[in-house]
Amino acid sequence: MRFNIFNRNKEINKAKTEYNEAYPIDTFINMSGTDAKTPMYQFSYRWISNTTFSSDLLRTIIETITNETFKNGIAIKERYEAKCPKCGREFEEDIPVCPFDFTPTVKPSYDEYIILKNFIDRTNSFDEDILTTMRIVDTDVNMYDNGWLLIVKDYLYDKSNNLIGAIPKEVVRLSPAKMKIIMSNYGMGIDDDVNYLYFCPEHRDEVHKFEKEGTYKCPKCGKQMLRAWYSAKDKSKDIYYSKTEVYHIKKWSYTQGYGVPPLYSIWMKVLTLMKMDRFMLEAYTLQRSPKALLLIRGKLDSFRKAWEWLMQKARENPNMIYPLILEGEEGGSNKRIVDYVQFDLKPEEWQWLEMRKEFREVVGLVYGVQPMFIEGKEGSGLQNEGLMIAATNRTIEHSQEVWNDFLEWLSEKIIGVTSYKLELVPNERENVVRDLDIDLKKTQIATMLYNMGYEIEMYTDNNGRLQYRFKRDVFGKKERVNPEKLENAKITVGEEDEGQTLGKT
Ligand SMILES: [Zn+2]
Ligand SMILES: [Zn+2]
After folding, report:
1. Which of 396, 403, 402, 460 is nearest to 430 (CA)?
2. CA-to-CA distance for 134 and 119, rounded, in angstroms?
3. What beta strand segments (E) does 104-228 contain?
4. Quick one: DSSP state of residue 109?
5. Measured in whole angstroms, how far is the alpha carbon of residue 280 from the centre of its chain?
6. What ligand is nearest to the CA atom of residue 101?
């Protein structure tokens, strides 16, 4: 008996595990803890990554977004051409003297350029350069809408153990599943009881609470402590990090605290697509009903026997159409004795293809991409579709903006470089195509206005972009369009109605 119960529990647990791996949990999980809030997701991080990597659609989408965002690499750009050391004004042109206070201007510092160059060329302890780390974290952001970067630093203290500086060493990814934000209704780094949380960079697994903000020293080593803004679960301990050590990236949601995974809104569609694939896969392996049946009418008992025999045969060769012969009943009421039943799977007949297309489009919409399909030969059953993802310019620009915010933070706040900045190189070709498209539309409007009787003046603006100026043509459209009728028009200046009558004759 005991043994049975034990087995039964084991079975239930096994089923539960399988279910949890296949579906998000149904219940709301209320996370506890006074210092840090952990996300309350319907999904586990493991479930999200499993689902993403088992879905051809999701995987292609997030890889396309990451590739397009980082394909042109990082550039080191000057923040200004000239800067006034006295008033701090920055100028886009190279002017030798500040026009406001006549102080000689300075150029961007080449030393700072070298500092940034060395930093982006450097690899971290996982042998990844910063671009590789950013690509890896971008995958996290596209999956969980929570990406975490840690800036590993060396801290410098004076003789009295006061913190006097920090040298950023490397940038590494932190696992989103382990990260927690320390926040309450009172703000970041403050717990629910309005305590300010501090930690020592040398003893990161201990947090100290104070009622006020201030300069506090570590009770163990006496070094100045930092405000704790984030923590990461490490085995049974929490490791604390400061505001200037961790960068939290969100791309898909504008929420306070944690980001919300895009999968949250589309998981049902993604799972349906996957189940459809699985259904087709199973239907096309040997374990399925025969392609078609040839039914010969007879008794029910004999039908059961015949069916078992038929299923066995179908396993051996699913493409063969076997006659299902049943013992005949003399003088039966049904005169029709032979039927042909088609079992073949044709997704188009079930309107699968339309539904799949719509599902994929909605999934794409959430990510700001357009899934396109090159459909296979008609009637091939499985429809060998090729999947292509077109990421819109807006999506990639947004993705680059989010990362440029990080690069700005890194270069200015962390590395402390003020005359140069790090920036992702935009997709120029797409921008050129977009600019041409806008120019074409402007020209179309100008042509329409010209036909309505406006005078058009074309010029290029400071950015070299095509522009038009419009002016009402005093002679109106009709005279210019029909120059041969100019004489008639001259007779009727000021009398529009008559002019039109004359024009028509
Ligand atoms: Zn100045
Ligand atoms: Zn310490």
Report:
1. 396
2. 14
3. 147-157, 163-174, 179-181, 183-184, 187-188, 196-200, 203-210, 226-227
4. P
5. 29
6. 1
For residue range 300-312, list pLDDT tens digits in order.
Answer: 677 777 778 877 8
Beta bridge partners of 233: 238
Q: What is the tens place of the pLDDT at every residue in 31-72?
A: 444 445 544 556 788 888 999 998 988 998 999 999 999 999
Sheet harboring 179-181: ordered strands across? 179-181, 230-234, 237-241
Ligand nearest to the CA of 91: 1
| Ligand number, closest to the Cα atom of 217 | 2
Ligand 1: centre distance to CA 93 (Å): 14
- Go through 427-437 and write b for each residue having 16 or more CB atoms within 10 A of its CB, e for each that does not: beeeeeeeeee
Distance CA 329, CA 294 (A): 17
Q: How far is CA 337 from the centre of its chain?
A: 60
The environment of the single-atom ion ligand 1, i.e. residues with CB closer than 5 A, is: 84, 86-87, 98, 100-101
CA of 111 to the centre of ligand 1 (A): 23
Ligand approaching nearest to the C-alpha of 95 = 1
The rounded distance, in Å, linking the Cα atoms of 163 and 152 is 16
- Give this prediction's pTM: 0.69
* Distance from the alpha carbon of residue 222 to the mean position of ligand 2, in angstroms: 6
Number of H helices, E strands in the chain: 13, 22
